[in-house]
Structures are given as C-alpha cells and as structure tokens.
C-alpha cells in the first residue's frame, strides 16, 4: 500500500551524480525518517536503511522510497549458514532495493550471489567495519596482520566470488581499487566533512578525499540527519562530491 508521503520534488535520472551520496537514515522510527526525507527533498536520491530503522518498520519504507523513484541501500550485514543467507537474500531481492550488505566471509558471499540470481539487487561485501582498528581485530582473535591486510584479503575473495562490490573504510579505497579494478563497486562509510566530529568511526576521510581515492558511493549519516538544515548539509556534501568527481 502506498503511503501518502510525498518524498521527492523531481526524480533524478539514472546516472544522476546524486546517487554517489547515500544518506544514512540512522533514525529510530519510520515517521522520523519520513520527516527527514521530506526536509532533504530532491537533494537526496539514495538512502541507507540499517538495523535500527529496518527492524522498526523500515521494510515498508523501502517500498515507499522505491515507488517514489529513490534508490535504497539495505545495510543488513547478513551472515549465517549458506542456505539461510541464500533464502534471505532471495526474499530481500523482491523489495526493490539497489544494494544489500553481507559480511565478507566466502561461504556467505557465495550464498548471497546465488540468492540474488535473476534480480537487479547488488550485493556488497562488508570487509572490516569502519569502527574497527588493528587493536579491535586482535581482541576479536585476528592475531596476525593489520586491518588493511584483512580488508585486502576479503576484497580479493569478493572479486573472485563475483560480488558486485565491497564496503570498506575510505582510507582503504585506493588500495582496494587496485585489487578490484573498475568492474566492482566501492562504497565507503565513515565519511566526515571537514570539521565534523568522527563519532565512533576510526578510519575516515572527507567526501572529496574519498572520491579521489576511488570510491563510487559515499555513505553519510549523522552529519546530514543531525544537521539543523539536512537539505543544506546534503547539498554541501553533494557539491564537494561533484567538484571532486570533475577534478
């Protein structure tokens, strides 16, 4: 059932540069998310829905956004036994989302590729969370190597398995582009405009630096949705992305 919410002023063309900016709806309720979306207006063309909103009714919002011509990134980071992942991805593929994340474990990635077969859904493999650094990996039992080395290993596995792209921290994007080539997508969270607090992110870059490093899409949440004027904040980041893309 369609919502009465009007989400857009005009619909961006398929290759609109606004699709490079994915606005993270890290918001506790669908009504609050709708309010933010209305305030952003046509400055937003691509939205991320993660755990917080998805499990608070956000799957219906996915359909609303898709019906309204927006793109949706479902950041669910699936990881389970192969059959469970495959069937879960198959169900999710019917929602019309553009991207879905899974954790970059080989069995999980293979199952996700099988589950999305015949759909337009693109699978992104999450390499190492941007809130992790080398010490966090040691605490998790990864005793050898660095965060960057583990990201590179998982990116190589994702490429071999046929995943559509990866999620990695912006500082790793340049190295990952060398591993992936131009065929696979690089999506980078942990983006912070100059002067913004890092929050719980440990591996961050500005929007321009991330684009120059080879990222295809930038995920920005709190600096936009927490702004006094979310539309202006989104437009400022989009202007920086546009300038960097043309440089």
TrEMBL record:
Specify the Orotidine 5'-phosphate decarboxylase domain's residue ranges. 20-237
Q: Which residues bind substrate?
A: 26, 48, 75-84, 130, 192, 201, 221-222
Pathway listed for it is: Pyrimidine metabolism; UMP biosynthesis via de novo pathway; UMP from orotate: step 2/2
For whether the record's keyword set contains Lyase, the answer is: yes
Q: EC?
A: 4.1.1.23
A single Gene Ontology CC term: cytosol
Residues of the active site are 75, 77, 80
Q: Name one Pfam family in it.
A: OMPdecase
| Enzyme class, broadest EC rank | lyase
Query: InterPro entries recorded for this chain?
Result: Aldolase_TIM (IPR013785), OMPdecase (IPR014732), OMPdecase_AS (IPR018089), OMPdecase_bac (IPR047596), OMPdeCOase_dom (IPR001754), RibuloseP-bd_barrel (IPR011060)
Gene Ontology molecular-function annotations: orotidine-5'-phosphate decarboxylase activity
Catalytic activity reads: orotidine 5'-phosphate + H(+) = UMP + CO2
Alphabetical list of Gene3D superfamilies matching this protein: Aldolase class I
| Swiss-Prot/TrEMBL keywords | Decarboxylase, Lyase, Pyrimidine biosynthesis
Q: Please, one GO biological process term?
A: 'de novo' UMP biosynthetic process
Q: Does the keyword Lyase apply?
A: yes
What does this gene product do? Answer: Catalyzes the decarboxylation of orotidine 5'-monophosphate (OMP) to uridine 5'-monophosphate (UMP).
Question: Which family does this protein fall into?
Answer: Belongs to the OMP decarboxylase family. Type 1 subfamily.
* Complex and partners: Homodimer.
What is the designated name of this protein?
Answer: Orotidine 5'-phosphate decarboxylase
Instruction: Supply the source organism for this entry.
Output: Microvirga brassicacearum
